[in-house]
Amino acid sequence: MERRFIDTTERLAAVVAEQRRTKHLTQVELAAKANGGRRFIVDLEAGRPRAELAATRTT
After folding, report:
1. Would you say residue 18 lies in a domain?
2. In principle, which of 8, 30, 42, 43 could form an S-S bond with 48, CB 3.0–4.6 Å?
3. Alpha carbon of 18 to those of 1, 22, 30, 45, 55: distances in Å?
4. Which of 36, 32, 40, 51 is nearest to 13 (CA)?
5. Per-residue pLDDT of the chain (59 residues; tens, 9 = 90+)
6. In the chain, how many domains are there?
7. Domain extent at residue 14
8. 3-state DSSP percent of the chain in helix, strand and coil, to 5
């Protein structure tokens, strides 16, 4: 698998959605694998920043 640098929230959203679809996962299934909720995945794929995501970013 090729590694890609993700430098924007929009790019992260696109990569997450693309990879989820490639692996034939629903948002609910991905959320379960990530020990999170579906709403988090929905927001992530929509490019909406959330506190949980902001805490993982380094600048």
Report:
1. yes
2. 43
3. 13, 6, 12, 9, 23
4. 40
5. 677 677 888 899 999 999 999 999 999 999 999 998 999 999 999 998 775 666 565 55
6. 1
7. 9-52
8. 55, 0, 45
Is 48 among the domain residues? yes
- Compute CA distances 26 → 13, 52, 55, whole Å: 15, 21, 25
| Domain presence at residue 2 | no
Residue 23 included in any domain:
yes
Helix 9-22 × helix 38-45 angle, to 10°: 120
Instruction: Report CA 20 to chain centroid distance, whole Å.
Output: 9
Model pLDDT, residue 7 = 83
